[in-house]
Input
Amino acid sequence: MRRLSRLSSIGLALATLALFATPASAQESEQVKIIFERPIPNVEGKSMVTAIVSYPPGGKSAAHHHAPSAFIYAYVLSGSIRSKVGNEPVKVYKAGESFYEEPGSHHTVARMQARKSLQV
Output
């Protein structure tokens, strides 16, 4: 499986978990595991969340919008991911590379690049 580490606000984490509850083939959709969650001391009601997003071979995420308050930072643990956010061109990120997404951004493509099992 490919896995992706994300840092976000709690609002995004909840929106992301709700997104995964949408109907999709278990073979195509990602799995999210929250591994760290702590309140931000000087920003009431906000938290920093780290999640591992795992994709099966050929897996992808449905198009989605991030919360207006969420700052997304992603680091590819292994494999590669094809990603498109907003009006930016499609990009491929490989193991060891990172990227960020602006608050409120529209993530239209998130797909495992290779057909074998990977970690992002």
Observations:
- Residues 5-26, 115-120 have pLDDT under 50 and may be disordered.
- The two ends are 8 Å apart (CA to CA).
- The chain is about 10% helix and 45% strand.
- Strands lie at 2-8, 31-39, 47-55, 64-65, 72-76, 80-85, 91-94, 98-101, 106-112.
